[in-house]
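TA notes, week 10

Several of you asked for a full example with nothing omitted. So below is the full record: structure tokens for the whole chain, then the designed sequence directly under it. When grading your own attempts, check the secondary structure regions first.
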């Protein structure tokens, strides 16, 4: 088996660090200005964007890429804070997660903070000619 070349290794390390370099400062800003963790924001924004501000727990799990246990613990904490509610679906064994009024308020306050942080801390470092390349690489990896 052939090892990674120095250039391949450099690229691999750069890709691993990219996530941390982009996500960590945005998450810190979001939490310091709104009190929301990145996980809170991810869940609230997905619920807010969905029809009826509700998704199944399975849909949330899939869209976040989290395992079932992590999502369940996060939802328990958020439910205790009055941001969302979980209830069994009327049909089947699925659990429906619904955004509550307090959650809608919190996400409406957090969205502009998140947008400003993403633009200031990450997007300004991406040249216009690099956008399509980055999106294409991510799409190929996703497939």
């Amino acid at each position: 088996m052939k090892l990674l070349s120095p250039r391949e290794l450099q690229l691999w390390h750069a890709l691993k660090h990219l996530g941390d370099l982009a996500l960590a400062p945005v998450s810190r800003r979001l939490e310091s200005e709104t009190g929301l963790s990145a996980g809170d924001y991810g869940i609230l924004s997905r619920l807010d964007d969905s029809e009826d501000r509700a998704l199944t727990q399975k849909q949330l799990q899939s869209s976040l890429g989290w395992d079932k246990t992590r999502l369940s613990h996060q939802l328990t904490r958020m439910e205790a804070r009055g941001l969302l509610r979980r209830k069994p679906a009327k049909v089947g064994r699925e659990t429906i997660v619904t955004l509550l009024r307090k959650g809608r308020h919190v996400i409406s306050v957090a969205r502009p903070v998140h947008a400003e942080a993403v633009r200031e801390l990450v997007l300004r470092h991406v040249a216009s000619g690099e956008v399509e390349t980055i999106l294409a690489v991510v799409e190929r990896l996703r497939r």
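The two ends are 25 Å apart (CA to CA). Use that as a sanity check on your answer.
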